[in-house]
Amino acid sequence: xxxxxxxxxxxxxxxxxxxxxxxxxxxxxxxxxxxxxxxxxxxxxxxxxxxxxxxxxxxxxxxxxxxxxxxxxxxxxxxxxxxxxxxxxxxxxxxxxxxxxxxxxxxxxxxxxxxxxx
Length: 118
Known about the structure:
Number of helices: 4
Radius of gyration: 23 Å
Number of strands: 0
Low-confidence stretches: 5-16
Shape: elongated
Order of helices and strands: HHHH
Strand content: under 5%
Structural class: mainly alpha
């Protein structure tokens, strides 16, 4: 299969613009989901996720009243902070990739001047 990068490398600007508009459209309609990932290949992470889930269940069942509310407030707050952190990382990664693409395919700025073009 061809990657987005290989397609951009092998096409002119007009075709690249057409590809990009299709890519953005596919992303908009949810046909490209960068978050659809699995830990099935990473047994260490999968094991730690099971530890987290099991301990959350044990603590939720063992605690009562105020300590249970405190714990659930902690879990929910951590979920919000973790989600916002993941969103920030996604945005920054997307911007970094866009800057790489701009530099590679659009920008003609370089530190030195081409003497052969004169």
